[in-house]
Amino acid sequence: MLGSVRYAPDGAAAEDALEAGASVLAAAESGWEAVSAAVLDAAVAAVRRCRTGGWLPADLERIVRREDAGTTLAALVVDALAAEADRPPAARTPRDPRWAGQLRDLGAEAWWPSGPGYLDALAARRRTSRFETAHDVLAALRALARLPRITPLPAPPPTAGSGPSGAAADRALGRIRGLLAKAEATDYAEEAEALSAKAQELMARHSIDEALLDRADGPGGGRPGGPSAVRIGIEGPYEQAKALLLDAVAAANRCRAVWAADVGFSTLVGFAPDLEAAELLYTSLLLQATAAMHRAGDDHHRALKAQGGTPVARGRSRRTRDFRQTFLVAYADRIRDRLAAATAAATASASAGSDPAAPDLLPVLAARDLAVEETTGALFPDTAPVRLRGVRDAEGWHQGTAAADRARLAEG
C-alpha cells in the first residue's frame, strides 16, 4: 500500500491513493496498534533514506512545510524525525554532527507513549478520526519518499573551544548581533542601513582575525578544518530576488552561494565564521528590505491614485508584484556594492595596520578564497546562471536602489 501511495502521480491519482490507503489502514484486520507500529517503522526508514540522500532535519521540515499549505505534514515529519532518533543508529552509518542540534531546534521528541500507541495519541491530540489520521500520516510518508537526493554538506569543523580566541569571537558576534537588532528595530531607513554597514565592517574584521589566527596556528595548531557549508531556506514570494540578496551578502563575506530553486534553499560555502556572519546579515537585511519594500509600495500606489484621479484597481496585483520584485532585485544589486565597499575598507585598514612580523594578510585571504572556490566546485560541479524575471518596473528599481543607498558608511 505504501508503494501505491508513494508512486501515484500528483493530483487526483495521488489523492485517490491516499484515501484508499487510509480506508485500508483504518479498518485493518491486524488492528490499529499494529498499524501504528508499522507506520512508525516506515517513518524511521523514510528518515534514514533521506539522511543518506543528503538531507538534514531542518531541511526536511522546511521542504515539507513549503509544499504543504498548512503545518500538518511538517509536524508529522518532526514526529518521524523523533521516532528515528529514538531507534538505535543503523550499523556503520555515521550521523552528521549537526543532526542533534537541529532536532533540538525543531523540538523533535517522542511525545507519544509507545509505538503501538502513536496513532491513537496523534488522533486524540489533533481531534481527528482514524481515517483522517491515517490519511495525513500517509501523505507525510509520501512527501518524504519522493524527495530527491541532494548534495551532502561537508562536516562542520571542530569548534575553536572556549579559550581567549573563542571569547573574542563571541564578543565580536555579540556586537554584530546588537547592531543588526538596532537596525531591525529603527523606523529610519538611513539609520538602519548605517548600522548594517557598520555590522558588515565588523564582520569583515572578524573574518580577517580568524584567518590570521588559522594561519598563525598552522597545521596541527589546534584549529583544524577547511571550508564548510550551510543551507538557508529561500521562502516565497520573490525567491529570485531573495536568492540574489543572499548571494550579495555571501560574496561580501568571502562565501559562495548556490541556489537550488526546486528545493527552495541556497547552499552557502565558506569558513565557519564567515558562514555565521553571512547568515546573520542576510536575515537582518531581508527583514529590512521587506519593510522598506512595503513602505515604498504603499507610497507608490498612493502616488498612482493621486495622478489625475486615475483608478488603479484594474491590474493592480500584477503591477504590485512587478514593483516589489524589481524593488528587491535593485535593493540586492545596490547592497552588493555597499557591502563589498565595507569589506574592502576593512581589509585595507587591516593590511595597513598589520604587524610586520605577522604573515601578509592578502595571501592568507587569497588562499582562503581559493579553498572556498575549490570546495564549491567539488560540491556543485554543474551549475548554471539564472535569468532574472519580472524586473521591469522602473519605479520599483528606483525605489529599491534608493532604499539600499541611504546609508552613510562613515557613520558608527
TrEMBL record:
Residues 242-347 form the DUF7168 domain. It comes from the Bacteria. Pfam families: DUF2786 (PF10979), DUF7168 (PF23771). InterPro entries: DUF2786, DUF7168. Residues 171-210 form the DUF2786 domain. This is DUF2786 domain-containing protein. It comes from Streptomyces kronopolitis.
